[in-house]
Amino acid sequence: MKKKIVSLIIGWVLIFQMISFGSDGGEMGTFGGISEGRNLPKTIDAYVDSGLGLITEFEYKEMIYISGAPIEFSGTITVEIDDAKIMDAPAGTYEERYTIDATSIAGDTMSREIVFLTSYRIKESTFKNQIIRVSTMTDWSENFNIDGVDYNLILGQSDFSKSSIEDMTPGVSYYDTVISYNAVYSTSTDDLINISVEGNVYGFQQPWAKVETQDLTMILESTGANEWQMQVHIQPFMKAKKTMYYDETAPFPISFGGTYNQRLEREATLTYEIQTTDLVIEEIDRSGSIYLDINNTVEKLPIPDGLDFIEGHWAEEDLKKLYSMEIFTEVPHDGMQYEAITRGSFVKALCLAMNIDTSDYENLEVATAPQYYGDVEFAHPMYKYIMAASDAKLVQGVGADFNVAKPITRQEAFVIYIRVIGLERLGVSNNPITPFVDDAQIASWARKEIMAGYNLGIIKGDALGKVLPNTMISKTEAAAIINRLIDYCREEISQDYQY
To answer: What pLDDT, on a 0 to 100 scale, did the predictor assign at position 75?
Structure first.
């Protein structure tokens, strides 16, 4: 067996490559507005560079309360985050810049630009990494003209605090950001407006969906000729997801019966409630919501071919979907529905399903290629997937070997299954007994993950209430549980993030 070769420098590169898809939010800004956000990548983007570059300007809406009444503004937000430096070291700094220009239906205007210097550091854990960020405001300009009155930010009397933690699990990035700022404005009517905001921004990002939710409390106070106070609860929400549906072809004389279509959907909504105010505001204006109307993008996926033998099988649709999404790549053959899936093939499918980057292990020289396991040499077809899954902290070997060709058991599969979405903690309880009839057969190292899967509703027993932890998983069953995971990632995971 080759010696395991991973230098400190290579190790950090792998960690940063793993976290490069992550984000601690920012596409909606930090002032309680909503944007269309960046869409999820299409499948074809993995094969072709469109040359369009990374989009930084988004359609934007925000409710403005500074005049004492809620006014809807529409325009654009430009998000510039120079976080490429995060690839270079386990700690450092980078710049963030947010620019917003918008108008109301009545012709009122707003212009805002804020710049942060963000410091970050990486904290490693066994099955994940964390990024801790602290942002310091270095520049901030803001102007409103509403109903002929100018409102200008006084920079010297204003401050902004932002800090976040991002949990980088093998397949999903989760984040929570705390925001606290105080802004003071002078007006052309010789009033001073003080706006203070406290709240959180939290969300996640993974290949099938991303969500950002903000929960903010804003307190406004006007002093001078016009004295009044107001408190507003603001809840912006943004979501992007991929859905999949079968599109049957209409003409009879055509070489295929239909295709799967992948639809990239986005939504953004904002709700607000004025909880207290000294001003007389119509009841209808005390609460409300606005939204962005965003067009969906549809992409045709490859036609799964050679699967006639699976017609009528209970996992027919699951298998066809995984072949269409190019998550199953084995040449289909009659009889595979009865074959057990190996540890290597199951991990490969999860790498493809959760878009775990394998590029570091492509186009290497044999002499310098690192090797973690004795039975997964450079020439092995599963090499890049097992190595990338290990770097992503998704899997660990068994002793010196990975047992790549050994059929995977249900409990082994379920442990990896839950680890990829990083929700093992949902299986922690004072009662170590799972609800399955054959609980006594579950290994101690798999209990937490199986319980987490049960609590999430994605690991279920058979008709007799058994989870069958030591039974091998067939390829069709693997297709079903991986497709179930994808469906969970598309929709169900986001339900607790929206109001």
So the answer is: 98
